[in-house]
Amino acid sequence: MTRQYLITAALPYANGYLHLGHIAGAYLPADLYARYLRLAGEQVLFVCGSDEHGVAITIRAEQEGKTPQEIVDHYHAANREAFDQFGISFDVYGRTSSPLHHRVAQEWFLDFYRRGLLEERQQLQFYDEQAGMFLPDRYVEGTCPNCGYERARGDQCEQCGAYYDQLALKNPRSLVSGKPPALRPTTHWYFRLSQFQHALEEYIASHQDEWKENVLQQARAWLKQGLQDRAVTRDLRWGVPVPLPNTEGKVLYVWFEALLGYISATQGWACEQGDSDRWQQWWLQSSDRQTYYAAFIGKDNIVFHTLMFPAMLMARGGYILPSNVPAHEFLNLEGQKFSKSRNWSIDLRDALADFPHPHHRDALRYALAMNFPETRDADFTWGDFQARTNNELAAIVGNYANRVIAFIARHFEGKVPVLSEQDREFPARWHAVVANSSGGSSALDAEQFSAEERAMIAALARGAEAIATAYRSFRFRDATSETMNLARAANKFFNDAAPWKSLAENPAQCARTLYTCVQVLRSIAIALAPVAPHLSRSIQQLCGIAQPTTGEFSGATPGPNVWATIPQPLIEQGTLLGQPQRLIEPISDERIALQRAKLGAPAAQLAPHRERISIEEFSRIELRTGRIVSAERVPKSNKLIKLIVNLGSEERQIVAGIGKHYTPDELIGLDVVVVANLAPAQLMGVESNGMLLAANNGERLVIVSPRDEIPPGSVVR
C-alpha cells in the first residue's frame, strides 16, 4: 500500500503580522517535519494559507480606514513573503477569500443542510440600534460571568479563558456606539456536533498512545462536558455568504469555513497542477493508499482540530481524519507573554529585516527549534539566540567546516584527498562499519579502520537514525540537539585524528583523515537541512555538490532517500571544494542590545573600562592556545568544570567556572585561549593550573575560541 504524508499548518489570520510565537507554535515545526520527510524520500504535501474572514478583519479595517479586502490583501502578501524568506516550504498556500474557497464552503454547508445535519434556530442576539446592526461577539464588551473581568469579549474572557454565550455577559456595551445593546431575534443554523460525541470519543481513544498528553487532555475535557451543537452562521457582511434564500447579511461562521481552507487550498493547487481531481488523492480515503495526516497547530486551536474538524470530516463521509495533532504550547518572550499592545513582541518580518543574512535567519530557526514549547510553555530570549548562534552554530558547525576546508586548501590543493594505494578499498569497506555500527565491529573493520574512524562512522549511522526517530515522533528539540551532537562528534574526530601531526609523519593517514572529514561534513549538512536549510546548502556547496538538497518543494512526488546516505562516503576523491570561509558571523552584543531596546528592555550592562596598563605589564601574561581533551563537573558544584587542556608540550588541568553556561560534552574538542603562567589555585579542593579566556555578554559567559586551525601551544600575541 502506498504511503503519503499530508501536513497542514494552522491558517494564520490575515489581520496582522506574524510574530515569533506564531512561528514556534505551528509553522517552523511543520516545516522541519516536511523537510525531513522529503529528505527521507517520502511523498509529502504541505498545506497552509491565509484565514481572511471574521470580525477581527472588519475591526482592523475600521481602525485603518480601509476595506476588509484591502486588509487581507496586505497581510496575506506580507506574511507569505515572511514565510518565504524564513524558509517555510509550503507546497500550497491558499486564501479563504478566494472564489474557490467560497464555493467549497458553501457546498459543504448545503450538503449538511440537505442531509439534516444543520438545525435552524431562532435566538436573541445583541443589536446596536444606533448603528443598525447585529453585534458579533468581538463587537461586544462587558463583565465576564465567570471571573468578573470588566473588559471581557462577547465570546471569551481573555482574563480567565472561559467560553460563554454573549448573552451571559454582564453590563454589555457595543464597541461600535458605546451604548448598551438591545436584544433582537435572529435566525442561525447549528451543526449537530452532539451527534458525533460517541464517534469522537472513539477517535480520541484510538490515538491515546501516540498523541501528546496536552492534546488528549484538552479534547477529553470537552468530551467530558458533553458536546453542544454549534452555530455555523452569524450576522456579518464580510465572509462567505450563506447560500440559502432570504439570508442577506448572514455569512458562514469563520470556525466552520476556515477549517475547510485546507481542502479548498489543495483543490486550487490541483487545478494549477493541471489535474483538478488530484486533491482527492490527499483528502479522500482509499483502499490502496494510506495517508498520514499531521495537523500542526498552537494549543488554542486544539479542540477545532481534534473535535470540530474531525466531526465535519466524519459528517461529510469518505474523508481521512488527522493521524496526529502535534500542538505546541505557547512561546513567551524574555519571560513575558507576547503582547503587541504592550510592544512586547517580535514580528517575523522585523527579525528578518534586522538579520538579513540567510545563515542568521537559519540561526533564528535553530534557536527556536532548540527551545520549542513542545510539552510546556517555553521562553525565547535574545541572549539565548546570540549564545546558540555564536557558541553552537558558529563555534561547532562553522568551525568544523572551516577547519576541514582550510586544511585541505592549504595542503591538498583544495581537493578531496586522493587515497593511497593501500587505502583504495577504504570507501567500499566503509559500508561494513555502518552495518556493524549497532553492534561490535568485525575483525576486518578493526584491521582496516582506526578506533577513531569506527567511532565517527558509527556516530553518523546512529545519529541519522536517532534524528529520524525524533522527527517522526514530533520531538523536534531532540532532533535538533542530536544534529548538533553529530557536529560535536566531528570536531572530536578531527582533534583525535590530529591531521597536523600525520601530515608530516604519515601523509597517507592524513589524506584518509581529511577524506573522512569531508564525508562527515556532507553528512552534517544533510542532517542540518531541516532546521538550517540555507546553511546546509552553503556547506554542501563547500563540499563540491553542484545541486544541494535541503528538503525543498517536491511537487508532492517522492524523491530519493537522501537521509539514508548520511552514513555513506559519497564525495568523490579529487572533487574540487569551495574556498574556506566563515559561514556564520558572530552576533555582537550591540546587535542584541538593540533588539532588547526595541522591547523597552535595558541593554546589558557592560563592564567598565579599568585603568590602562603598559605593554611591559601585558607582556608578563603568557597566552597560549589549547584544546580541551576532557571535561567533567566538579562534585557538589553547579558552576565548576574540571578540564584537561592540551597545550602542545603538555596537558594542563584547569578548573573553570563555566558550568552554568556549558555542558562537559560540548566542551570536548573546543579550541581555547589559556593564561598559561597563572599561579596554581585550589577551587573546592581541586587544583587549577591556568585560566580560560571568556567574555560576559550580560547573560552568560562565552569562551574565546580561535576560528582558524591552529595547533595547541601557539603563542597568542
Helix-strand blueprint:
Blueprint: E1 2-9, H1 20-39, E2 44-50, H2 55-64, H3 68-86, E3 92-95, H4 99-114, E4 118-128, E5 133-134, E6 140-143, E7 152-153, E8 170-174, E9 182-191, H5 197-205, H6 213-225, E10 230-231, E11 233-235, E12 250-252, H7 254-259, H8 261-272, H9 279-283, E13 289-296, H10 302-316, E14 331-333, H11 348-354, H12 358-369, E15 378-380, H13 382-411, H14 426-435, H15 443-448, H16 451-472, H17 476-497, H18 499-505, H19 507-528, H20 533-542, H21 589-598, H22 615-619, E16 623-633, E17 641-646, E18 651-656, H23 664-667, E19 671-675, E20 681-683, E21 686-688, E22 691-692, E23 694-696, E24 701-703
Parallel strand pairs: 1-2, 1-13, 2-3, 14-15
Antiparallel strand pairs: 4-5, 4-9, 6-7, 6-8, 9-10, 11-12, 16-17, 16-19, 17-18, 19-22, 20-21, 23-24
Helix pairs in contact: 2-3, 4-8, 5-6, 6-10, 12-13, 13-17, 13-19, 16-17, 16-19, 17-19, 18-19, 19-20
Overview of this protein structure:
Helix 18 (499-505) packs antiparallel against helix 19. This protein has 717 residues and is α+β, with helices and mostly antiparallel strands. The relative contact order is 0.10. Residues 440-444 and 602-607 have low confidence and may be disordered. The chain has 4 domains: 2-96 and 255-349, HUPs (Rossmann fold); 107-252, Methionyl-trna Synthetase, domain 2, CATH 2.170.220; 358-598, Isoleucyl-tRNA Synthetase, Domain 1, CATH 1.10.730; 615-703, OB fold (Dihydrolipoamide Acetyltransferase, E2P), CATH 2.40.50.140. It has a 5-stranded antiparallel beta sheet with strand order 18-17-16-19-22. A hairpin with a 4-residue loop joins strand 4 and strand 5. Helix content is 41%, strand content 16%.
